[in-house]
């Protein structure tokens, strides 16, 4: 596994472990606007079920938020070698080709900004260069 993908996998695993280990308090965003959100910045969004998405966040109010330029980490296991590989995947390549993801804010565990020098930010920058 490449060091970049290993770091991305470690980051996502860290998000999940931090949520479980720290017992973070879930904030119900229903009806409340998220404060301090820059619509031009990328955010890590961890959902109650453990899924993590990365994208540009816009609070729609009324209990929903919208993510655009959405990415997620996909992990695969080679059945022969049992080696695990991870890749950052841009949403939109699915059969229904979504342009955005609308999330029920009550299903969000927490939101954190993606650091400009983080492995995720670097992988997103690399992915944006590809056609």
Structural write-up:
By secondary structure, this protein is α+β, with helices and mostly antiparallel strands. It has a single domain, classed as SH3 type barrels (Roll). It is built from two helices and six strands, in the order αββββββα. The chain has helices at 3-22, 119-129, and strands at 42-47, 52-61, 64-77, 84-90, 100-104, 108-113. The longest helix is centred in the first third of the chain and has 20 residues, at 3-22.
Strand content: 35-45%
Helix content: 10-25%
How far from one another are the termini? Answer: 24 Å
What is the count of β-strands?
6
Please, how many domains?
1
Question: What is the global morphology?
Answer: globular
Instruction: Write down the Rg.
Output: 15 Å
Global structural class: alpha+beta
Averaged pLDDT:
80
The CATH topology is SH3 type barrels
Low-confidence stretches: 14-31
Describe the sheet with the most strands: 6 strands, antiparallel
Name the helix and strand elements from N-terminus to C-terminus, one letter apiece.
HEEEEEEH
Q: Any idea what the CATH architecture is? A: Roll
Helical run tally: 2
- The CATH class label is Mainly Beta
The oligomeric state is: single chain
